[in-house]
Amino acid sequence: MARRRVSDDWITILPREKSQLFEAVVRRWECSYAMMSVALDEALSLRASGELVCARQQVSIAADLLGRLSPSLISLCDTLSIRGRRLGKVPAVEPMNAGFFRGNTAQSAASWNAILHHVLLSNRSRFLHKLRILSDTIDHLEQEFHEAAGDISKGLSVQPGDCWERLDHLHYDFNTCLREIEVVLKSFLRTLPDEQLSALAGELDAPPAPKRLQVKPRFSDASASA
To answer: Who is most buried in 63, 87, 116, 178, counting CB within 10 A?
Structure first.
C-alpha cells in the first residue's frame, strides 16, 4: 500500500465534525492575522507618504496584534505535541523548506528541520520535531517583530529603512509558519480517533498558556522530539 502523502491529507475533505473544528480554529487565526497585516500595510503606506508619526503608531499596533496571535499558535503546537506522544499513529509531515522563508531565523529553523527529518527514523519523531521547530520559530519571529517595531515606534533605529525591511520579512515568514501549522493541524485531525475530537476541541477553545520566557532558539536540540 502506498504511503499517504501530506498533500493527500490537505486536499481531501475532512469528516463534517472535524472539518467544522478545523475551520473554526483557522478562522480565528486568519482574522487575527488579517488585522495585523492590515495594520502593517497601513504603516508601510503612511511611511511611504511621509507620515512618519502615524506610521510609527500603526507599526506598534501591528506588533501588539501579532503578540496576541502567536501564543495561540504556540499553544496549538504544544497541544498537538502532547497528544501526539499518546496516539497510536501520528500523521506524516514534510520538512520545512528554507527557500520558502526570507529571514535568517526562519531559514535556519527550516534548514535544521530538513536535516533532522532525514535523520529521525519514525513518523512520530519527525512529527514532534516539526511541531517543536514551528513553535520555537513562531515565538522568535514575534519577539524579533516586537523589537524591530519598538525601535521604529520609539525612533531608536539608526537605520530605519533596514528595520522596516526586517518587519516585512518577519511578517512574510510568520505567514509561512502559519500555513505550515494549518497543514499539520488538518493532517492531525484526519488521524485523530473520532472519540478524542471533543476533548481536543475543548483544549483548542481554552485560552493560550502564559507566554513562555524568552530564550534563544534551540534548533539543534533534537532530544526533545524523540
So the answer is: 63
Q: How far apart are CA 144 and CA 139, in angstroms?
A: 9
Grid cell for residue 202: 475543548
CA max distance for the chain: 61
**Domain boundaries of the chain, sorted by first residue:** 18-208
How do residues 194-223 score in pLDDT, each as one tens digit?
A: 999 999 999 988 776 665 555 444 454 444
Interior/surface letters 48-59, b for 16+ CB within 10 angstroms, e for the rest: eeeeeeebbebb
- The DSSP H or E segment spanning 22 is helix 16-48
Question: Which pLDDT tens digit goes with each residue over 82-139?
Answer: 999 999 899 989 999 999 999 999 999 999 999 999 998 899 999 999 999 999 999 9
Angstrom distance (rounded) from CA 155 to CA 209 = 32
Q: Among residues 117, 126, 125, which one has the least CA distance to residue 97?
A: 117
Q: How far apart are CA 201 and CA 214, in angstroms?
A: 28
